[in-house]
Amino acid sequence: MKAVSGGVTAAKGFEAAGVEAGIKYKERKDMAAIYSRKPCVLAGTFTSNVVKAAPVMWDKKIVEESPFGQAVIINAGIANACTGKEGYDYCKQTAIRAAEAFGVPENSVLVASTGVIGMQLPIERIKAGVDKLADAKSDTIEAGTQAAKAIMTTDTRSKEVAVEIDVKGVKVTLGGMSKGSGMIHPNMCTMLAFVTSDAVISKELLTKAVKEDVKDTFNMISVDGDTSTNDTLLVMANGMAGNSEIKEGTPEYGVFKEALHYVNETLAKMMAGDGEGATALFETKVIHATTKEDARILSKAVICSSLTKAAIYGHDANWGRILCALGYSGVMFDPEKIALYFESKAGKVLIYKDGVAADYSEEEAGRILSEPYVSVIVDMKMGNETATAWGCDLTYDYVKINADYRS
Amino acid sequence: MKAVSGGVTAAKGFEAAGVEAGIKYKERKDMAAIYSRKPCVLAGTFTSNVVKAAPVMWDKKIVEESPFGQAVIINAGIANACTGKEGYDYCKQTAIRAAEAFGVPENSVLVASTGVIGMQLPIERIKAGVDKLADAKSDTIEAGTQAAKAIMTTDTRSKEVAVEIDVKGVKVTLGGMSKGSGMIHPNMCTMLAFVTSDAVISKELLTKAVKEDVKDTFNMISVDGDTSTNDTLLVMANGMAGNSEIKEGTPEYGVFKEALHYVNETLAKMMAGDGEGATALFETKVIHATTKEDARILSKAVICSSLTKAAIYGHDANWGRILCALGYSGVMFDPEKIALYFESKAGKVLIYKDGVAADYSEEEAGRILSEPYVSVIVDMKMGNETATAWGCDLTYDYVKINADYRS
Lengths: 407, 407
Description:
Low-confidence stretches of chain A: 185-189
CATH superfamily of the largest domain in chain A: L-amino peptidase D-ALA esterase/amidase
Oligomer: homodimer
CATH architecture of the largest domain in chain A: 4-Layer Sandwich
Largest interface: A-B, 66 and 66 residues
Strand content of chain A: 25-35%
Distance between the termini of chain A: 45 Å
């Protein structure tokens, strides 16, 4: 597996574009498209929220019922959530226009939206944007980057990743882009992630790989615990690499899953580290847990704890808050047995063991916590399972961004 | 039922005190005692956190095994949590000293602590504090207030309430005090609440009443979702009112439960409204839910949502965030059927129905949300069950209080 530059246009046969459509923002690109020259098998995972945005309902139907997908139209600024029948009809109108403009079947067009809930899309501007996207689309790396920029809301950085693998002597590429700033932002932000590949793989196997992998990647990040109405991950594979089909239980499937995991984890970590107002990517790794599920629950409890997040912002080695979060997670353990460490580029320090504080230097711990990427390692000493979760610190700017009147 | 002035000393035979013991704070009272002239039946509920502070373990044992309780010793500044055997031994030493100083059996002494996790108590200062408390104790209203002030940490106001009821012609009083600023603060704050009564009631019935009532009072508040290691509610009844014993299934038990509910709810709301950094008490009332449990889950999801809390701070009528929180609560419902209202002293406004925004004035909604006590009413239109939860807004000061280095 080799990391390469680029994003959704890295794999063969994929084109992308980002254009100014004037949806809500001014003087910035706010619509994007992904297009594949050949039809793609599709896999998707969507928000578990009972309140689902219209584009989520549209895409679920396409992923479940259509034989393939070929284009994705995305807008930033308005989420098209809680918009009733009118909102759903706008998804259909967008797909019809894209089918014409891109020359693909209507039921191969996916749509995604991110932004404010409850507002209707300016559908004529969306349609004009679709035409512009069809004209602008290109297979260059730069075109992928423009798409990644166009889907940002409160994100401060665009998010792209690409990787190459070898499938029986044939080069297969996976690339992706996402926006945040969490799973987890129902107003101005929503998690959207798009992964493209030129691999030859069946829809069933691609779906299986995606569903397994999101448990350890996108579902392990949190910015503020608020699960969005619009969360969408779409994975498209167009088969243009020409590899022999990737089959379950083969070494090639292992390599493909590893590459997919790398792409998903990289995009997920980028989102967590660029959470609203964040100054640090905050990772929690739970080791030696009894079950994988326990490890996931424990690590997520720590990265979701408001008090722990505020302590990370304060570069404060407040292990009591971490222990407290583990304690209310719902997983049973003996607090006297576990050990806690802080780790970053600046070093690693044991801070808690045998039921009491370890003998560590506050100064050293503070130095470790001053890095932009800090980890807590929780050694449960109970079994052999591991999980990692990613979040960010809780800062003044998180409050500022989300309390309009005060900002 | 009649509200009266005072707190833990309102009921007959109860004394209290607050003194400066120099535990951690300077020039303020930081130790408190509650003492009953006669032995009390006891009921208690404690944190569900796996990581339990030493005083929680001590008190659970006393409540379960002792025939009665007669004194409570409380300190602020240090939580005595994650302090191992030494910490538990300090609870015992405190009880022994209090038994001597107050002239009560050792196994009738309860202890409670709130403050920083992981630090050992300065036990000699605690012991000296116990002696001072025994000297200072008094049955005046002022003595109760001094105790309520001494147990504060980041609280900005002391919290007391008292109420009188009539039990077959005999006046029975219930009084209480608490500190916050939530359930829910493992470092500087912990929920501690103490309720005293002169009622004649059995331990079994008192325990039943308390366990039922906390589901709708203390367990329905949240400041930041972090369940403390020290949360403690103790209810003591010394029987000195001389009423005929309150029995289950009688009108008198109904009156007693109503009074207990009033005391608990008042203390709980005071804690939520004085959450760390809070500028407003934020209430969510769910009506017409299918089950009581659904109503509780839905209302708590809204008051726990960081984005909704930030919107309340911003006086922003962001109903999308509320709908989103209801949607990820785990309760199934049809978003097209429910209705949302904002309400405060300044008025009431319908903001969402039939799946889309209602026709309301942003200005009016902003005026309603500018009050220090604001409510969201969620009409599920599914059944007949109701629940209310209380939280507070998420502010810059919450971050400031909890990110030491930055403040």
